[in-house]
Write a structure and sequence with these properties.
InterPro entries (chain B): NqrB/RnfD, RnfD_bac
Structural class of chain A: mainly alpha
Largest sheet of chain B: none
Largest interface: B-C, 39 and 61 residues
EC number (chain B): 7.-.-.-
Radius of gyration of chain B: 20 Å
Shape of chain A: elongated
Chains: A mainly alpha, B mainly alpha, C alpha/beta
Number of helices of chain B: 16
Subcellular location (chain B): Cell inner membrane
Order of helices and strands of chain B: HHHHHHHHHHHHHHHH
Shape of chain B: globular
Oligomer: heterotrimer
CATH architecture of one domain in chain A: Orthogonal Bundle
Bound molecules: iron/sulfur cluster
Protein name (chain B): Ion-translocating oxidoreductase complex subunit D
Organism (chain B): Aromatoleum toluolicum
Distance between the termini of chain A: 60 Å
Helix content of chain A: 25-40%
Helix content of chain B: 55-70%
Amino acid sequence: MLTALLIMTGIAIVLGAALGYASIRFKVEGDPLVEKIDAILPQTQCGQCGYPGCKPYAQAISNGEADINQCPPGGEEGIRKLADLLGREFKPLSEEHGTEKPKSVARIDEQVCIGCTLCIQACPVDAIVGAAKQMHTVVAPLCTGCELCVAPCPVDCISMVPIAETVETWKWKYPVHELRSAA
Amino acid sequence: MINSPYIRKPASVQGVMLAVLTALIPAIIVYASQIAAVVLVNLAIATIAALAGEALVLKLRGRPLAPALSDLSAVVTAWLLALCFPPILPWWATVLGVLIAIVAVKHLYGGLGQNPFNPAMVAYCAMIVAFPSLMSQWPAAGQLDFATQLGLVFGGAREIDAIASATALDTIKTGLRAAGATVQSIMGEGNFGLVSGRGWEWLAPAYALGGLYLLARGIITWHMPAAFLGALAAISAAFWLADPAHYASPLFHLASGGAMLGAFFIVTDPVSGATTPRGKLVFAACIALVAYIIRSFGAFPEGVAFAVLLLNICVPLIDMNTQPRVFGHRGDKAR
Amino acid sequence: MITRLFSFKGGVKPESHKNESSGTPIQKAPLPKRLVIPLRQSIRSTARCLVAPGQRVLKGEHIGEGEGGLGTSVHASTSGTVVEIAPSPMAHASGLETLSIVIEPDGEDRWIDHTPLDLHSVSREEALAWLRGCGIVGMGGAGFPTHVKLGGGRGIDTLVINGAECEPWITCDDRLMRERAPEVLSGAMILRELIGAKQVLVGIEDNKPEAIAAMQAAASGLGDDISVVPVPTLYPAGGEKQLIRVLTGVEIPQGKLGTDFGVQCFNVGTANAVHRAIRFGEPLVSRVITLTGNVARPGNYEVLLGTQVSELLDLAGPKADTDRYIVGGPMMGTELQSLSVPVSKGMNCIIAASPALFPPPPPELPCIRCGACARACPADLQPFELYWFSRAKNFGKAQEYHLFDCIECGCCAFVCPSRIPLVDYYRFAKGEIWARERELQASDQARERFEFRNFRQEREKEEKAAKLAAKAAETRAKLAESGEAAAPAAETEDPKKALVAAALARAKQQQAAVTPKNTDGLTADVQAEIANIEARREKLNPQDADKAP
Ligand code: SF4
Ligand code: SF4
Ligand code: SF4
Ligand code: SF4
């Protein structure tokens, strides 16, 4: 009996030591979890989550400081994916952080723009081109629709326009389910 | 909006099921005329029970009745069960068996197309485990007159030993336990015909005929029947050649019990079976092997039902590993 | 030469319905009242408009310049006046609009000057550019630019000319081969020369004996290495990959081009267009289209590209109970969303559908895993597995089961006894996967740009700090030099503050002296506008107001 106990304890110690060593020896550089979370976030970089960009929010989720339902651009699908990744329960988007909107891009009214460069400084992805006192414009394919440029504009010439469906982005809808019976 | 293709072959689930029912008719005729006419009554009982059971569950599940009832899949299950059960099984046992198949196996798993197990075979196994004696009373062909058969089906006295004998498979199995008995000596005395049970053996070609009809109609493919019968013949031949005194001939095995019914009607159930061509071969051959082992060495006289269930479990595994080569892909299989 | 035929697995045999429209010769459609020529020739390619409203154009005049690698030129289909350039629906399942040039024909149908191209005096590249300039694309439906397909042409052994036309109802290729076999073969010989193929195989389904006879007669004088091969009638034998398989035994996997396997395939209509482009220098401005189905006068018509379907239909006379129109064949076609859609290069057939001819499918039942679909699938897929995964939106699994090998031929849905619209699920799943791919790319790009911006801001801050420090050191040195040792202690401690103060003083001086330069010499309304904006700005930012000049 005693020998059995001793042997078991011995095995436990040896295995524990091996595991401990392995966890140090094979420690992965960086924090893959943050990367994985960041990969799910939409990269709109809008800050609506309360963090200065998607990566900081990812960091905060992984540290357990932030909840998973704070990113409005990611929407329900994003929350679902985060819930899947982290093995948590799905919860609806938190209202204080905003609501899910159709994807839009910023457009500068070029007649009104005074060339103040304030929007350039606000844009997190450098999607606005222009120079001081020159007309500015948004490079639509690069714009993430974060709306950060809207507020700083002194002459209110930036508006958000929803992206229209084109032949290139059109897709087939989910077939209407006419399953009249499952018997 | 309806999208292409705008034309469809006039195929329907109902059509498929109707073809299966049609294919069973030759066997039913042989059964009724050569063995026991009461099978027609059993078929009717089973059909009514199946439709009633299906209607009931659909009602409870809040689904529309008409499409499901008219697809005839419940009737196919009912007929297969009625043909598998002994003809003199009391009516309530037939009803119970059918309800197990329809309610528990088909609908609890989500209805048509969703059940991982063959409903008829689950019901058959459940019944044989629950009512072993009732399920092993088989009259010899033409032994009982129609009134007696009816009396047995609808209650009344059951003088079991007096009326019932066992199936050919059972007779051989129990007979071999006696010292010095050989297959030949047993077959020489009892109710045996040319290769198997007298009268019963004629069912086999009738089922095969129906099976050929299904093959011709393209309802089933050749893979499953061929693999099943081939494997059964091969393994029984191997044992028979090694020891003809204690193992029955391949012909006996092919003509006895549920072999032919199984090969063309049960193993080929699409819903619970393997779907890839190679998968079908593996699936059916494995059923034959397991069935032979149960027949020859197991506690039950017939093994097809158990073998089918056992292999039903393996279907996802079989399918996954036998995906056919996709057009244009070399060697690498779809997975 | 006897060609050994191969076969592909699966396939179905729908009723062919070819006789309705194949009996009468190709008729020339009258000049339409209006032509609508989309600048987007396919989903992937657009063209830049070269004309302006009011401009007069001649037939065959270059009115749109193809953009990007897949772009091809766009031409006016007849002579007339450009009336507007406006969005108009295009022939696509979405029914979405695209920018189009609207031309009002002048009735003269006058050609622009065009000259043939002498293939022997130009390089291969020039010849391909010529085809691009003539707007030649595949005319079997997909509309893939021919010069791109010819582009990789090295080591090609076999040129396949596709005259199979396996879809029911369509007969435009059949008529074309019967009536213009020499032209089609001349185009085939040009294509062959351009890719350097050793042999030419023309595959025609054996339900078109007249076309086979006409083509064989035309081919007899052209040498041994061109042969017209009847292939068994089995849908989809006219699918490019299937036809190549039947004629040569080569299987081309998804995502690969025939060139990698020494085979290339062109439609007979394309061959005819190539013939006209090279031998006459004519750009592609018309095509043969089958009008059939529930119509009084089914047949084939040679139609100017850009003719609106509504005008075309008058030729055939749809019957009263026609409820919709199908573009393409019934197996792979799409429903027409609007009758103002113009005829495009890839439009081979319009079928008037009535409930009697194309009854709506009975209700869908659950899949019974019968495997009928798998037996019919020419791509050797397991359609019910794909269906299951697509329906559950399990796209990863669907891709693992080779969703993208599906050619959307519709055989599986055609045979399914449960009448499941299988192909709809595949289209949906493919669309979702592509959309996700696009989103992922966009978000990766955004992440990169965001990270770069952060990095840049960081760097700028550092550079600024470094500059500041250098300047401060300089100032201090200067101060020390000029002997002003009595500088306030605070300034030496905080060089930044000193700089800021100096800059502020300078700015004040300047502000007083300078007025904005770029407002000089502007027109009165611009001045007014600027004043306007400044007023708004003042209202918005009162604290700025005093600074504004
Ligand atoms: S809310 Fe904005 S910044 Fe925050 S994670 Fe979502 S997209 Fe990124
Ligand atoms: S342009 Fe405006 S809305 Fe678009 S990414 Fe930049 S700041 Fe955001
Ligand atoms: S044909 Fe239809 S019912 Fe049969 S397996 Fe395919 S999808 Fe399922
Ligand atoms: S549509 Fe796709 S899955 Fe269906 S038969 Fe054609 S290739 Fe196969």
